[in-house]
Amino acid sequence: MSWGEAIERARLAIVPRTYQILSRFSYLADLAREVRRAREEVVKNLDFYLGQVERAVGDLGGRFYLAQDGEEAAEVVAKVVGSGRLVVLSKNNVAVETGLRRRLAEWGNEVWETDLGEFLIQLSGEEPSHLLAPAVHMTRERAAEVVREKLNIAVEPDAAYIARRVGEFLRGKIIKADVGITGANAIAADTGAVVLVENEGNIRLVSSLPRVHIVYDGVEKLMPNLTYAFTAAVVQSAYAGLYPPTYINLSAGPSSTADVEMVRVTPAQGPREFHMVLVDNGRRAAARDPELWEALLCVRCGRCHMHCPIYLTAGPKFGVPPYTGPMGVMWTAITRGVEAAGPHAMSCTHAGNCRLVCPMSIDIPKVIRAVKRRYITEPK
Amino acid sequence: MSDVRQWVKTLRELVTYSLEKYGLPLPVDPGVCRRWREGLPRGERVLYTSCMYQLAPLVKRAVDLLEKSRAAEGGAAAWLASAGAKYLARFLLKPSRDEEERASAILKNIYRLLERSGVEVGVLEEEPYSGALLYELGFEEEFARHAGEVYRRLKAAGVREVVTVDPHTHYVLSVVYPKYVDGFDLGVVNYLELVKVSRVKISNFVIHDSCLYSRHLDMYHRLREILAPGRPVEDPYVTGRETSGCCGGPVEAVLPSLAKRVALDRLAKLTRLSDKIVVACPICLVNLGGLDLAEVVE
Ligand code: SF4
Prior knowledge:
The complex is a heterodimer of chains A (380) and B (298). With 380 residues, chain A is an alpha/beta fold.
């Protein structure tokens, strides 16, 4: 099956479902507006909120790191993890952005993606084609083939069957894992609490079973407080067409208990170490950029992809994975620079669908136009 | 994609060279833009076509020629550097007779439709090109200079209001000019906002919306109001304001093969609904062309 057919199937599944959710729960649009306001506040005062979260994570008994670029970020994690460990990851676009999985494997660790789509990408060695559904380009037949070939597990070409068999395999890994690495849908700057949305149930396990939990994401995930962070997660899942999400997780520091004399001690059942690594990699410069800053408001719902005629035709070649589609052109510019994003910006026809469906009302065509202009007029 | 920037620079050379020499963004004899309006009166309110209907079919030909030349000379970079756009510009492009007649017929229809709707409108003796292509390619500096000049010429011709006939011209004049031209004070109105229609000749057709009209200029519903008597076929995931797609035209000059694939994907969706497709833009008309396409006024 071609890309065109695969993505059209996905589009006709997710687009109507998202419209239904938004019309049935009309408060979601109001929440999206609130999240936009809060995100604007954070992006405009990013360094202030970074200072705040650093202190908050320390207060929780965790460790905070701000990494300037992808290499530094992966290095920090590699040092925390060490070598010879079993590491499990939940889906994490910043890990893809910064080559984290490869880096950890190079250090002699056994590393597994636990999100089904990302796991299939890991097995096949292909590139992720969508923010939330990285294996959206794969048919069930191909997925079954990949699992059969790489893991030697016989599976039927059936989505439920594949999910079950892969689930069993991964559960075995998660239970034994030394380190769990997750991203963050949103982080409350004032308390350091991390909110994570999911449906598979892997994030709960990855963030609670291993004795070390590392939160690894971009600096733009900060929100002023937990209410906003939670709301951002709700909005993200709704505009992704999955509402209510099956799980929303909150992690704030290593596990703890105050059951003996009400004195809070760590660890308890969950992780005994909690690390937060936030990656800059162009984000802070973008926050100060009069044209690119708006892209930082993105909550990663992936909705713009499904309405973009260029993404629907060109596929993951529109943008640089993991950042594909309309948001991807903007985010390629932020994380890899205008030189890398320029050719993709040139493919944009400014159809304008993305702007209309974006929950953050980001004027995506305008940002892409700026990338285009810089690419063709600024000297190399 | 690495040489896309080089390619766009060549296009820019071609466009600026042609603008200087012919007043049009492609090397085209300006006579072809004028013919349809011979004998029509002048006025303060003018129909402003920016020659888009005559130019649209030529974009592809200009690109084909540029592409062929670079293949023939072996290696794009060498050809682009040596012969460059000026070599190409010696070939004067011309719409075929059928293309020119169709463009003229569409424009005359628009003119008559406005007359019948009681809208008095004249034409220009010399009609400058809007500069839309410069803006769309990202050459904003050149665009700004050009736009200032167009404004000056329209003012000198005594124009107070322009009536546009295509979305690209309408968008640059109504949205972009005010940002780039100091003191821009011309009225800009689109013919679809003015015409009164009571009868639509065909039925069971599908509308392919122009991206600009529907999503950037808020005219999605207006077009449906006009075409309602013909009962267009709608599908919320093919013809919705947020779900419809582009014809690929805006990247025709830069990435022709992508433009073609986008057009084919769009056509596949549209033809599932009807084999009669109605468009309201000269670029859509050309890019989706080859099938049973009708311009809205036809
Ligand atoms: S740009 Fe907007 S629509 Fe696209 S992923 Fe981000 S928030 Fe969602």
